[in-house]
Design brief:
The chain has 152 residues and is mainly α. The chain is 67% helix and 0% strand. α2 (43-69) packs antiparallel against α3 (76-98).
């Protein structure tokens, strides 16, 4: 049986006496949570994280556009490649933020998939959306290749 927390009980008064933290304090590194290590990430890693996040966003947002365009844009192989590219980028960000020892392997895989996606988007680069997607994928691939070489 759980203790009573009815209004006026000792437990209720004790709980009421505990000051509430301002909303968001725990998420912003307030007094109960130390600041994250994001401030200590090497610039080459920070750039790769940013490029991967951007590529993830662009690939995912390009999918509905491609489906709307139809024809070659909507081919299953192209849509799956956009999904694969977005997912490997998200995964690579996770590995970098955790400082995983396996990050270098993911860098190589991410670079290869992003490069493949860039080439496929170039094939359909008859408009600004596909050119932008190809460029985001290419920039991410370049950054991931630098990560794999540096071995951070």
């Amino acid at each position: 049986m759980q203790p009573s927390t009815a209004v006026g009980s000792v437990e209720h008064e004790r709980r009421r006496a505990v000051p509430l933290e301002p909303r968001g304090t725990l998420l912003t590194g307030g007094p109960h949570m130390p600041r994250t290590a994001l401030n200590f990430i090497a610039p080459v890693v920070r750039q790769c994280i940013d490029e991967c996040v951007r590529c993830h966003e662009v690939c995912l947002s390009t999918i509905p556009y491609c489906l709307e365009q139809g024809a070659e844009h909507a081919e299953e192989v192209h849509i799956v490649l956009l999904q694969d590219c977005a997912e490997i980028c998200r995964t690579h960000v996770d590995f970098m933020l955790r400082g995983s020892d396996e990050q270098e392997r993911i860098s190589v895989a991410c670079a290869a998939i992003c490069r493949h996606c860039a080439d496929d988007c170039d094939r359909l680069s008859d408009d600004d959306v596909m050119r932008a997607c190809a460029e985001a994928c290419r920039r991410c691939a370049d950054s991931c290749e630098r990560m794999a070489i540096v071995g951070v």
